[in-house]
Design goal:
By secondary structure, the protein is mainly alpha-helical. The protein is about 45% helix and about 10% strand. A two-stranded parallel ribbon has the order 1-2. The protein is globular, with a radius of gyration of 13 Å. About 5% of the residues are buried.
Amino acid sequence: MYEKIISSALAYSVSVIEPEVIDELNILNATLHAMKQCVDDLKIKPDLVLVDGNRKFQSEIPVITIVKGDSKSFSIAAASILAK
């Protein structure tokens, strides 16, 4: 699915956070940091960001959290596949 997603997506971004940063920030804050970095790196800026779960990062773009979002949104499900 990874190849299919990146070949058909209008834009995508993947961020790698080093273990030392995770240790420094904790896993939740490192994850939020990676999400923000990915959004900031997109070649096409979205009007809205959907995040799986109940925590969001600060952004100029509106961010909406969706609990169990990967089962409710194709965009979140695709992002979950890219993240893995």
